[in-house]
Each structure stands twice: as C-alpha cells, then as structure tokens.
Amino acid sequence: MQHSHDYLIIGAGMAGEAAAQALRGAAANATIAMLGAEADPPYDRPPLSKALWKDGREDAIWRALDKARAEVTLQRNAVKIERAAHTVTDDVGDTWRYGKLLIATGGAPRRLPFGGDDFIYYRTVGDYRRLRAAAKPGQHFAVIGGGFIGSEIAAALATNDCRVTMLFPEDGICARAYPRALADAVTAYYRAQGVDVRTGMTATGGSAQALTLSDGSTLKVDGVVAGLGIIPNVQLARDAGLEVDNGIVVNAHLQTSDPDIYAAGDVAAFPAPVLGRRLRVEHADAANTMGARAGKCMAGEDAPYNELPFFYSDLFDLGYEAVGILDARLETVEQWVTPFREGVVYYLDGSRVRGVLLWNTWDQVAAARKLIAEPGPFDATSVLGRLPAAG
Ligand SMILES: Cc1cc2nc3c(=O)[nH]c(=O)nc-3n(C[C@H](O)[C@H](O)[C@H](O)COP(=O)(O)OP(=O)(O)OC[C@H]3O[C@@H](n4cnc5c(N)ncnc54)[C@H](O)[C@@H]3O)c2cc1C
Questions:
Q1: Residue 284: CB within 6 Å of ligand 1?
Q2: Could you check whether 2-108+230-298 and 111-226 share the same CATH topology?
Q3: What confidence tier does 140 reach under pLDDT thresholds 50, 70, 90?
Q4: How far is CA 270 from CA 244, 256, 278, in A?
Q5: How far apart are CA 209 and CA 46, in angstroms?
Q6: Does position 339 have pLDDT exceeding 80, yes or no?
Q7: Looking at the whole model, is its pTM more than 0.90?
Q8: 39 DSSP 8-state letter
Q9: Domain 2-108+230-298 CATH assignment equals 3.90.580.10
Q10: Would you state the torsion angle of the CA atoms of residues 348, 326, 200, 187, taken in this order, to the nearest 10 degrees?
Q11: Cis before 339? omega within 30
Q12: Residues 45, 38, 32, 289: what is their CA dihedral angle, to the nearest 10 degrees?
C-alpha cells in the first residue's frame, strides 16, 4: 500500500508525539502520519520507574496525541528511507511518501549475552506490566545496573515489598555521575532500606532464576531486571547515508545532513554551544522540547533548539534535578545544607561550570543553566554559594 503525507514521523514516543502536536499547531491543514514500533500509543516513560509503582495509575501516562490529528500506525517498523524518492518503507512493505520526515526512534536497551528474553530490559510500558505482574511481595529480584534506571527500579521494587539485590561494577550507586561521597551515601541509604547492594560485582552468566556472579558465586532469584543503558536507534539513518556520530547529527534547527529529514529526542546529537560540544542525552525534557521544536522547524518556523535540557530522578524519598554534564571524572564541588539530603554539586571543567546537580533543591534549573552559560572563570571557592539563586 502507498501513503503520502506532508509530514511523517518515525517513532511514536515522547519526542514524536511532541513533534506531532507542534506540527498541528503550526500547520493546521497539513497531513501528518506516524509509525510506531510498539503496540501502545505514545506515553510518558519516567512514570514507569516512579509514579506507577506508587499509585499504579496507568491511565495517567498516555499523551494527548489525538489532538494532533495524525494518522498513527502502531506495531509498524520503518525499515528503509529512500531519500531521493522521499519515501519510507515499513516492515509490511507499505511505502510512505513524505514532504518532511522526523526520525524520533529513541534507543534500544543494551543486552547481556545470556538470559535471553527471560531478563526484563526495562524500557516500555510492556516491560512495566510484565515486572508488575511478577513483583509479588517477598519475591526476590536481581537488578543489574547501578545507574539511573537500575537505581529507580530497585527502589520501586523495594517499596513494593520485594527483596532486591543490586549488582553493578562501579563502587557505588550512580558513581559515574555523583561525586564519590554522594554515591557512597546513596549506597548506604539503599542498604538501610533493605536493598542488598553489591558493588564491584557483575553477572557473568546464568538465567532469570540463578545468576552466576563475577566472584564465582550463584545468586538465586525469582526474576532479573536489567538497566544497562541504551544504544540509540540510528541504523535507519546510517543506512540512508545521514551523518551519525553517537547519535544522528543535527544542527540547531534539528535538521540532519539531509535538509528534509529531522531528528529529535534520545536519538539526536545536537549542538550545545554553551558546553562547546555536541550532546546526546536521554532526558524527558529534551524529548519534549526538542520534539516540539523539530515540529515547528519542519513547518517552516525559525525555532532553534538552544536549551540545555534538564534531567530528574526519584530514589525512595530522595529526588533531584540536574543540568549539563554530570560526570564524576570532572572536578566536583559539593555544597550541602544537610549532607547528602539537600544541597548542590557543581561540576567544573577548567574554569567553567559544566554541570549542576540540584539534590532535593528545587526551582533552580533556570539559574543552573545561567551559571553554566557564564564564562567564569570559576574555581572550587568562587562557585560556592552561586545557587540557590534568589527567584
Ligand atoms: C523507565 C524509564 C524512566 C525514565 N525516567 C526518566 C526521568 O526520570 N527523567 C528523565 O529526564 N528521563 C527519564 N527517562 C528517559 C526518557 O523517558 C527518554 O529520554 C524519552 O522517552 C526519550 O524520548 P524519545 O521519543 O526520544 O524516545 P522513546 O520515548 O524511546 O520513543 C521512541 C519510539 O520509537 C520507536 N521506534 C524505534 N525504532 C522504530 C522504527 N524503526 N519504526 C517505528 N518506530 C520505531 C520505539 O519503539 C519507541 O516507541 C526514563 C526512561 C525510562 C525507560
């Protein structure tokens, strides 16, 4: 079957939905189509590891895509882009002609070479439903990975009366992002909540019932959940000859190396002039804002994406927002109101602030962005006290 639309969006996720809404706002009479690989229409992913484990309200996650009046085809994978013909082919052989195309394909979870589909690689609402059904009180889960997803899932399971063993190679929870003392404090906090945190430990083989660990021991469990990061879904773009470097390379207007093809969300590597480098992030804020800007740009508006996205997370009763580069290898300057409960961490690279972690410190994202944009020079003494800034 052949279809033809002014705008085609590949990926019915957060960025794709935001783009569809913006397109409809900017081009009232345009035809918009969307292809989505999942069985579910677009939804917010952050609640999958947070709110849904508190209130279980799945009805709150769905996004208002119907307002965009797009022709949405789910369970359909785009498999090929023919740039000269301006067509996309999907996995049932349909051809979709586009005027302008958005690639918003997100990323696929990294997998282990063992365990197969018995391990839950946590990314979709389908993964949530599967884990939720298995997570009966007293069941024992191994959570592999000590980063953002692993730490949130471990907290979600523990608060739902499951036994949890966390395994990861680093020295502490989120140790690649947090300064050492904070990673240690969060790890101690998880242990105090009853989570068996095994630092410096990996799974080397086994099944969803028994994992072989790097110290040679066996861990018997009722299930395995893995949060090992994602690999951006760039294959379509690469096969089409678009420039790819970690993500799909876009300019400030979110155009790829083909001016009729745009990219946004987790899959896009965008310029971040205040950081002096290109950035690819996996942040809900970026998916929403970049998706919306891409929609506007596709409709002909001058709507560059020139923001530094922020990230947020909840871990038991701890929570934070963060902006810029959170890399524990940078110089970190900690400013605590209450140690490891409320404060700010500045990430310095040379004389510039490159990232800010706002630990239980709220309404400071705009001020953090401003600080990162300042030329400095800053050092460990002069940066202290810069945040919180007066509203
Ligand atoms: C459990 C979880 C918790 C999170 N929590 C937070 C948080 O607290 N804070 C935060 O800032 N961020 C969080 N994130 C990250 C955030 O959700 C992502 O950054 C965001 O979803 C990215 O949106 P996207 O549209 O780029 O990708 P996605 O939302 O992943 O959507 C991409 C869609 O494209 C589809 N697709 C891929 N290839 C094709 C193809 N060839 N054809 C058709 N469809 C295709 C995929 O199946 C998917 O549905 C979380 C993510 C997860 C998984």
A1: yes
A2: yes
A3: very high
A4: 11, 10, 5
A5: 28
A6: yes
A7: yes
A8: S
A9: no
A10: 100
A11: no
A12: 20
d(Cα 333, Cα 351) in Å, to the nearest integer?
A: 13
Cβ neighbours around 297 below 10 Å, total = 27
- Specify the amino acid at residue 81: I
Tell whether ligand 1 has an atom less than 6 A from the beta carbon of residue 280: no
Dihedral of alpha carbons 227, 321, 57, 155, sign: positive
C-alpha torsion sign, points 325, 293, 264, 35:
positive
User: Pseudo-torsion of CA 39, 44, 50, 54, nearest 10°?
Assistant: -80
Instruction: Count CB-CB contacts under 10 A for residue 130.
Output: 15
Q: Is the pLDDT of residue 56 over 90?
A: no
Residue in the block written with tokens 């963060």: 322
Distance (Å, whole) CA 310 – CA 230: 18
> How confident is the model over 222-253, as pLDDT tens digits?
999 999 999 999 999 999 999 999 999 999 99
* CB of 129 closer than 8 Å to CB of 123: no
CA distance 296 to 138: 49
Question: Atom 11, ligand 1: which residue's CA is nearest?
Answer: 283
| Pocket residue to mutate for ligand 1, from 21, 105, 289, most atoms within 8 A of Cβ | 105
The CATH number of the structural domain formed by 111-226 is: 3.50.50.60
Specify the DSSP class assigned to residue 388.
S
* Nearest atom of ligand 1 to the alpha carbon of 18: 25
In 3-state terms, what secondary structure has residue 185?
helix
The ranges assigned to domains in the chain are 2-108+230-298, 111-226, 317-373
Return the SS3 of 264.
coil
360: its two tokens: 């239980």
Q: How many whole angstroms from 183 Cα to the centroid of ligand 1?
A: 26
CA neighbor of 80 nearest in space, from 64, 60, 95, 65 = 95
